[in-house]
Amino acid sequence: MVDFGIPELTDEQFEEVTQVAEDAARKLVFSKVNQKMVDRLNISVEAEGTKPVNFTVEVDLALAPEPKDVDVKLLASEAVAEAFKAIETYLRKLK
Predict the structure, then answer these.
(1) DSSP letter string over 17-66?
(2) Which pLDDT belongs to residue 1?
(3) Distance of alpha carbon 4 from alpha carbon 41, whole angstroms
(4) What is the homologous superfamily of the domain 11-93 according to CATH?
(5) Are 93 and 9 contacting, i.e. CB atoms less than 8 angstroms apart?
(6) What is the mean pLDDT of residues 58-75?
(7) Are 23 and 43 in contact (CB under 8 A)?
């Protein structure tokens, strides 16, 4: 766990950071596959607690038709990692 030394987040900041994370995950997916191939893309970002804040990111992804050259599970994992990078960047700016 990393303590960024940030103050407690306001409701507005909670909303903003979760949206930033969701946007980052979505952007990564669409940078790797054509939007027309995405059959299902559900991104869930939740923030709990105050100090520390715990974040949970889930990406549910299905492509149709399923391409042979794209590992859907790997792509979903990369999208989760990208969301966490966006969360970290956002929190560092609050210091």
Answers:
(1) HHHHHHHHHHHHHHHHS-GGGEEEEEEEEEEE-SSS-EEEEEEEEEESS-
(2) 41
(3) 31
(4) MTH677-like (3.30.300.100)
(5) no
(6) 91
(7) no
Instruction: List the chain domain ranges.
Output: 11-93
Taken as a whole, the chain contains a residue count of 95
Q: What is the mean pLDDT of residues 83-94?
A: 92
Tokens representing residue 55 in the block: 């974040």
Distance of CA 70 to the CA centre of its chain: 19
Entry pTM: 0.88
Interval 28-58: pLDDT, tens:
999 999 999 999 999 999 988 777 788 999 9
What's the rounded Cα separation, in Å, for the pair 72 and 2? 29
Both structure tokens of 87: 């969360």
Extract the tokens encoding 24: 């980052």
pLDDT at 59: 97
